[in-house]
Design brief:
Blueprint lengths: L1 H13 L1 H4 L1 H15 L4 H13 L3 H13 L6 H15 L3 H11 L9 H14 L3 H13 L6 H13 L2
Amino acid sequence: MNADWDARVDAVWGAAAELGEAEVLRRIDELVAERGETDARAAFEAASARDYVGQEAEAAPLYRRALEAGLPEPHKSYAIIQLASTLRNLGEASEAIRILEESGVTDPAHPQSSAANAFLALAHVTGGDPQKGAAIALHALAGTMTEYSRAIHAYADELTSAR
């Protein structure tokens, strides 16, 4: 059942642009109902659908429920990043920063570190520290460069050390 369920969820997300927000939400909610409210993956998909349609206040507790229920990887990392993004949009930038920094997803060795650091940078900007946000983004970008990496890391360090 899980493989079939996963495939059906993937199909909804794959067609999301053509389906429209209301239909995505309806279809995901149908699939979530098959697994029940206590299922971690179902809570994650319900949260993601609410985020997709701009219902961040409804999404946040569902992400938390999914994480508390033991959502496995890779969805756990996605839930952490998406929860942090949602919290930032809800005006809770400091909570978004805390979640990202404590989770380990911003570590350069983590497979989702680029996305996590992008959202961490945005949270710092929203939280009133644009220099730190820029430094985080530059460090993440420098890690992908073959040339100029050393220089970009140094300039990023200057942004936060000059305060």
